[in-house]
Design goal:
By secondary structure, the protein is mainly α. Helices cover 74% and strands 0% of the residues. Helix 6 packs across helix 7 (103-127).
């Protein structure tokens, strides 16, 4: 990931990765069958980090809006805390769409991301006895779109206040999907 964050996706070669790790060039093949496998491992790690940050249970009971706001802010904090890292992941996404050997990665990553967000939303809302007015998978898809959109906007303009405002508004909008008739 360091090579990609510092020099871009095109700089990620077996030689650059093993050189950065201080390993013999041939050791790459013991860890990964291909560059696509390396990128898949990077994306898997990113999903785990994002899920841990965004769905970390609050210490005290909070409203649905606040829970969503905290999760969106945690996701944004990952972007603002490591902008070069976030840019490298965005570059990997764009690169993968155009490279036939990597095009499957983005479909896999989005499906995995959606599956994990939906699972986390299901667990959280079941524990809190919350019902949505839309299927959970649609709520999860909206959460992803809002979180990714806010992160991308921040990468473009680095406007912290605008990003915080978007997090708050996004949380209110998503929380409005709670089915109050069920509460």
């Amino acid at each position: 990931m360091l090579v990609m964050a510092e020099e871009g996706v095109a700089a990620v070669t077996t030689r650059s990765v093993t050189g950065r790790a201080g390993l013999p060039h041939g050791s790459f093949d013991y860890c990964f069958e291909s560059k696509a496998d390396l990128f898949s491992a990077i994306l898997s790690q990113e999903i785990r980090v994002t899920m841990t940050a965004a769905f970390d249970p609050p210490a005290a009971a909070v409203s649905v809006t606040e829970r969503i706001r905290v999760g969106l802010q945690a996701r944004l904090d990952l972007v603002t805390g490591r902008p070069d890292h976030a840019l490298a992941l965005a570059e990997l996404s764009a690169f993968s769409y155009r490279d036939p050997a990597l095009s499957h990665l983005m479909r896999w990553e989005q499906a995995e991301y959606l599956r994990e967000v939906a699972r986390n939303v299901d667990e959280w809302t079941a524990a809190a006895n919350i019902r949505w007015s839309a299927p959970t998978v649609q709520v999860a898809s909206l959460l992803i779109a809002v979180a990714d959109g806010i992160g991308t906007a921040w990468l473009a303009d680095r406007n912290d206040q605008a990003a915080r405002d978007a997090v708050t508004l996004g949380a209110r909008a998503i929380a409005s999907l709670v089915d109050t008739a069920e509460q």
